[in-house]
């Protein structure tokens, strides 16, 4: 995208406007064609994120996301509306504003109906809603003790804990699909998922729930979610919940094509909203009266979307800026699709540059990467545990001002010596690319790791805090 070009697009011939007013035989109200805003420039992008702490190579957008200054200003306006006159805000503005945001999200994800879309604070809350619903089905006898739930081995940690807290404690039998990493194709993932379903169905068990990531967090890989949902339908899985915390603004999200019963994604990670906001999609044909927000307020029983729109006095401003965020992303060539492509192409380029510099590999083919890429770190760094990854991550932050998460990959049994570059790698850096990033930030990471290698550094030299 050449963001230095500024265009003003006009549709139609404005010289016909007066004539249209006098010739309206079809009873259509004449309307002046709306001008498209000029495309955002590189300098304007940097200005939108000038509140970021200077001097930090911030290549970890995936963890916390980012919010432009113009959206922060809009959020502040919503906050002031509440503070000026809370009663008017509650009775006349809040519900209307949240419905507008839900409508924008409904169109963005191609849902059937706005009633399928609820707004919550984050994907973790959405997971609790779905998993508590499943737990109640066990407790109230709709599901039998020992019925199965299937999830991916690389499911997000809090979702795993939620499954343990709700489904396992209610009597569910949980199976993890052991996904390969590094991964070379979608077929590898599909094969392991089928194995997990077969194991779950053994001894005559019924599979009540499948939890599928759209993009795994760590290691980060795009999952063939449409294929896995289709397989679940073929195998008679009752309900499918897609945890897509990283998806919106990062990959294509289409509810009619994916076909899951439940789907959640954060809007503060890759869609420029302030923290924290997520949507939970519940397919209309599968909407249950016992889907409830975990926080019970006086809207309990009025439907999940209404329950979620008021859970007591709190700051709802992040849920109200979604229409403004749409205006922001539409200042980019191609809108959100153009941003996704720009970020994907850039992060793959940077990932391949790092892998070449370090003599390692990417964790997946480019087509299985989103705006995040896993890059193998040199084996001589001696990454041998999750503790080592945190120590090295802290070292890079404190001594090189680089923010980047690191994944530990345990060697396979008997794999003491490397057969090739893939098997010797025990640590992967997860790099993100968002519109505010610059290529020199990735060169800083390259040079920092190369310096550690040259100095004979190993993770054993670092002391845990």
Automatic annotation (TrEMBL):
Start and end residues of each stretch annotated as Disordered: 1-36
Basic and acidic residues: compositionally biased ranges: 1-16
Ranges for domain Aminotransferase class V: 94-288
InterPro entries: Aminotrans_V_dom, PyrdxlP-dep_Trfase, PyrdxlP-dep_Trfase_major
Keyword Metal-binding part of the UniProt annotation: no
One Pfam family linked to the record: Aminotran_5
A GO molecular-function descriptor: transaminase activity
Domain of life: Eukaryota
Keyword Transferase among UniProt keywords: yes
Record key words, sorted: Aminotransferase, Pyridoxal phosphate, Transferase
Descriptive protein name: Aminotransferase
């Amino acid at each position: 995208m050449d963001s230095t070009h500024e265009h003003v697009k006009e549709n139609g011939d404005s010289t016909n406007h007066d004539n249209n007013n006098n010739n309206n035989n079809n009873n259509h109200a004449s309307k002046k064609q709306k001008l498209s805003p000029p495309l955002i420039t590189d300098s304007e992008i940097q200005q939108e994120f000038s509140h970021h702490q200077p001097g930090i190579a911030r290549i970890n957008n995936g963890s916390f996301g980012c919010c432009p200054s113009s959206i922060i200003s809009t959020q502040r306006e919503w906050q002031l509306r509440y503070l000026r006159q809370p009663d008017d805000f509650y009775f006349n503005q809040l519900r209307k504003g949240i419905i507008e945001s839900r409508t924008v999200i409904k169109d963005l994800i191609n849902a059937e109906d706005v009633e399928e879309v609820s707004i919550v604070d984050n994907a973790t809350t959405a997971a609790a809603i779905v998993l508590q619903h499943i737990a109640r089905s066990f407790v109230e006898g709709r599901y039998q003790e020992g019925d199965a739930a299937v999830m991916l081995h690389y499911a997000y940690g809090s979702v795993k804990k939620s499954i343990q807290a709700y489904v396992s404690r209610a009597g569910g039998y949980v199976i993890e699909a052991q996904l390969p990493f590094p991964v070379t194709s979608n077929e590898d993932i599909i094969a392991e998922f089928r194995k997990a379903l077969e194991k779950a169905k053994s001894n005559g068990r019924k599979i009540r729930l499948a939890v599928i990531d759209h993009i795994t967090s760590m290691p980060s890989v795009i999952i063939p979610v449409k294929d896995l949902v289709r397989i679940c339908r073929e195998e008679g899985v009752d309900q499918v919940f897609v945890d897509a915390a990283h998806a919106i603004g990062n990959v294509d999200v289409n509810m009619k094509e994916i076909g899951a019963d439940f789907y959640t994604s954060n809007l503060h990670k890759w869609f420029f909203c302030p923290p924290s906001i997520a949507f939970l999609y519940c397919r209309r044909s599968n909407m249950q009266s016992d889907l409830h927000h975990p926080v019970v307020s006086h809207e309990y029983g009025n439907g999940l979307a209404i329950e979620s729109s008021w859970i007591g006095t709190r700051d709802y401003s992040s849920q109200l800026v979604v229409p403004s965020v749409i205006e922001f992303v539409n200042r980019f060539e191609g809108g959100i699709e153009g941003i996704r492509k720009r970020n994907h192409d850039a992060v793959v380029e940077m990932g391949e540059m790092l892998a070449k510099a370090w003599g390692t590999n990417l964790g997946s083919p480019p087509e299985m990467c989103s705006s995040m890429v896993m890059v193998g770190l040199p084996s001589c760094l001696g990454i041998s545990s999750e503790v080592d990854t945190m120590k090295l991550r802290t070292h890079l932050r404190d001594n090189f001002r680089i923010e980047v998460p690191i994944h530990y990959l345990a060697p396979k049994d008997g794999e003491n010596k490397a057969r090739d570059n893939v098997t010797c790698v025990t640590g992967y850096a997860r790099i993100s690319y968002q519109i505010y990033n610059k290529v020199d930030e990735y060169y800083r990471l390259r040079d920092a790791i190369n310096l550690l290698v040259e100095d004979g550094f190993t993770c054993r030299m670092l002391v845990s805090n």
